[in-house]
Amino acid sequence: MIYAHSVSGRDEKLWEPLAAHLTNVADRAGRLAAAFGGQELARAMGGLHDIGKARDAFQSYIRGQGPSVDHSTAGAVIGERKYPLPFGRMMAYGIAGHHAGLANGDIAGGGLSSLKDRLAAGAATPLPESCLTPYLDIAPPEVALAAPVLSEGFTHEFSAAFLTRMLFSCLVDADRLETERFYADLHEEPVERGCPLTVADLRDRLNAHLAQFDGRTGAVDSLRAEVLAAVRARADDEPGLFSLTVPTGGGKTLSSLAFALDHAVRHGLRRVIYVIPFTSVVEQTAAVFRDALGSDDAVLEHHSGFDFGPADSGAPDEEGRDGARKLRLAAENWDRPVVVTTAVQFFESLFSNRPSACRKLHAIAGSVVILDEAQTLPLKLLRPCLEALRELARGYRSSVVLCTATQPAVTTEAGFRGGLDKVRELAPDPPTLYRRLKRVTVSTIAEPLSEEALADRLLSEPQALCIVNSRRHARDLHRRIAVTEGARHLSTCLCAKHRRAELTAIRQDIKDGKTVRLVSTSLVEAGVDFSFPAVYRAMAGLDSIAQAAGRCNRNGELPELGRVFVFDSPENEGHRPPAELALFARTAASVLRAHDDPLALDTLRAYFQQVYWLRGGEDLDSAMVGEGTAAIRGILNALRLHRRRHDFPFADIAKAFRIIESPLVPVIVPYRPAGEPDAVPRLLDALRHAPADKTGGIARALQPYLVQVPRSARAGLLKAGAAECIRSGEFGDQFVALVNDDLYRPDVGLDWEDPTFRRFDFFS
């Protein structure tokens, strides 16, 4: 008997036969790919993916009688030889990479040999009769049943590479699920996957939630009800590309969710994926959805705190037989009817080559994708992002909704060359909505405003919000007003747990009419439902100014219009915006000279058009793919140059596609929340003593206590002894904890400017 999986210490009769594994994976991969018509391709891949395990060397390995050997290349060789381009090549990429990842086609990269080299060195494995399955005999013409994906609009470069990743996703997920099922059955343990609630169930629950708002007569409430009704009336529209342009405060979050659920039920779509630019807003939106839908289980919140890295080998993880395990399993393949995630997680997965990141991609097919705050798409990757959205709508039965108060001009109708076309607006008459929801006036302060003058202005207001462009500026300005009544601070120098507590306290103070003078970075500009009578915004792009204005007189509760002031800082104070923000600010200033109302839709469209035109086509796809003299500027260009034999550089593209170019690094901070002041010391103590393979749950519990800092700042903390690296021999620099507690302050969070600072020294 030839086996796919062994069981240590158990009779071989309990091991999994290779033929059974190949058949089960092929069946499941086909079902997963049915959402986009790729079932025959996926089945053929499943039937071939592990045939290398029939080699004597592998059978010796699983019996503990030899070293580990490659078992992926053999199936890739057969797929490449048996099926014509592009099908055989697509299959070969996925089969060869179903453990290590998608390789480059013809050049080594990303720590992987090229597919070309692997195929040249590999050999087809003759199969014993016991391993033959029906899926090894799928005829090449039958594979062409993937035609729905390869129909109108298909391109030989982007579409083919995209389909390769989608098929890879189906194979990886099917292989992992079948392996997981085998071991769970063996141990008679249930696998807690899936959710009993369907999108129809959630639609009904949302209806019940929204019914409680019926009958409200306020002007803003009435307008929100109109928007909701109009948007839901469009649910019968055929799947495709949509926009939802609703001014801040117009209820677009729940309106977009209602449309998505109605639309999914009407067209048999499987889930709603809500994509948000900021982690802090993901947490808030997921909480809103759980409340509106009356279910924690149906809503998966997935961002960096829930990205559990590669889970690409053998038996399932034995760790965490608790509630977190079900969440971890769902995060692996987005097996929930509602997923709330970040733009980083969503787009970087779409361009990834890692099995763990790509595993969930097939779940996007046949879904409604809502791209919240669509204007935040990264400029240097804008064209690849738009191509991915176009491809999802074109070939994968996905509906994509660009949802924002400041709609970016990325459509052909708006004059964007190569932009999205046939985008249907869901909101009823956006210009009229804007006029009816106008709740603020925006004034630009002519002369640069010094920090002292800005502080004086804030102190003259009983309630005011000031948004600046950097954490340092927020900290410095807060120092100016710190001893006065109602001084508050918000930035990512506060850990997530601390930020949530501050947000709750600030909202309550505003509601109670207390003095609140809040200095914040831009983290409050999306999804935070503050409402101040006066808002000050450091000069930035018009979209940022519009978002800041959304925190002013948000619900129309003031008897007059709210006041928004846009200011600049003097050159000598060192608080000028970073280079890219400075470009946006200059563009905004240029557009405002020709338009009276900074927040009008035609002003915003002119702003985005100028931003894109100033950058030029190459700047909107400017990531460098590959290294040295062989590097290619632009992901789309790299795909075009490798299209002839589908030698796509998957590993190099994955490395190049980074929404956050210079990622920050985490520091665990000693925040002491009310009710659990010893949480961090207790978790750190557990981390120091837990077995290495049992630290995942502890790491997740520490996520709310992380502050992301520049790598150089963390190095300075470590050098000064203000932070320590926990179990560096096993985990490297994964766990760095602050030990100088005086550097984490209850008002501004982590201040790493002077790592040697001690509060005792300061007061002495």
Key attributes of the depicted protein:
764 residues; alpha/beta; Hypothetical protein af1432; Rossmann fold; globular
Outline the low-pLDDT stretches. Answer: 305-323
The fold-level CATH name of the largest domain is: Rossmann fold
Q: How many strands, which pairing sense, and closed or not: the largest β-sheet?
A: 7 strands, parallel
Span between termini = 78 Å
Q: How much of the residues is beta strand, in percent?
A: 5-15%
Mean pLDDT: 87
Reading side by side through the largest sheet, how are the strands ordered?
5-6-4-7-8-3-9
Under CATH at level 1, the class of the largest domain stands as: Alpha Beta
User: Which architecture of the largest domain per CATH?
Assistant: 3-Layer(aba) Sandwich
Relevant CATH superfamily of the largest domain: P-loop containing nucleotide triphosphate hydrolases
Structural class: alpha/beta
Computed over alpha carbons, the radius of gyration is 27 Å
Count of DSSP E strands? 23
Treating each run of at least 4 consecutive H or I residues as one helix, how many helices? Answer: 30
Overall number of structural domains = 5
Q: Helical amount among residues, as a percent range?
A: 40-55%
Pfam family, one: DEAD
Protein name: CRISPR-associated endonuclease Cas3
Family: In the central section; belongs to the CRISPR-associated helicase Cas3 family. In the N-terminal section; belongs to the CRISPR-associated nuclease Cas3-HD family.
GO molecular function: ATP binding; endonuclease activity; helicase activity; hydrolase activity; metal ion binding; nucleic acid binding
